[in-house]
Amino acid sequence: MMASEFQRTKLRDMFDAFDVNGDGCLEEADSRP
């Protein structure tokens, strides 16, 4: 089952929110306040 455009957009928004430094990778540094 493929994700809908809405689901892909929501996942991208969530990823971008967690990717604090904006480098495209989720790293330990992204989880620190």
TrEMBL record:
Gene Ontology molecular-function annotations: calcium ion binding
SUPFAM superfamilies: EF-hand
Segments forming domain EF-hand: 6-33
Protein name: Calcium-binding protein
Chain segments annotated as coiled-coil in the UniProt record: none
Gene source species: Streptomyces gancidicus BKS 13-15
InterPro entries according to UniProt: EF-hand-dom_pair (IPR011992), EF_hand_dom (IPR002048)
The organism's place on the tree of life at top rank: Bacteria
